[in-house]
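Worked problem 6 (solution included).
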Amino acid sequence: MSNSVESGQEPQGFLARLGGKFRDLSFLRYLLVGAFNTGLDLALFTLGVAVFHLVPLVANAISTTITMCVSYLLNRTFVFRSEQKHAKALIPFFTVTLTSGLLIQGAVITIILALTKSVTLVPYEVLAAGAKICAIGVGLIANYLGYRFIFTQWNKPISDTEESSH
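Solution. The predicted structure is:
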């Protein structure tokens, strides 16, 4: 049995061997960008609650809005490598992000803080940060599905050869 290099075929990487689940590396890039955005969102949220004593929903709105702008640029250029005009992607992207970040995350934060209201052993700021982490987790799936549709269904991603010529 010859290996793929001898046969002239490109060697299969680890991800390709996973049954094709990760053929499109946009999901892995999404995870990297998501980790960065999650850290930024959580840091801004915690700063708002712990330092500026904002109500968690207000801190969430501020952190989500700032992170949404960073996320748009990174998802458009790095994750999905879209050449789509901003006007075509901007409104749908913000709709997905605002729905997830404000409505879904806001609901998760409110529910968790209501359920943990009687917990007195843990500082409120820690409970709020924990609620935000749970909310981010719920929002990640909704965001990926929405962003993938926005940046790939309406536009063909830039290929690696085209990318190197930019």
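Discussion: DSSP finds five helices and no strands in the chain.
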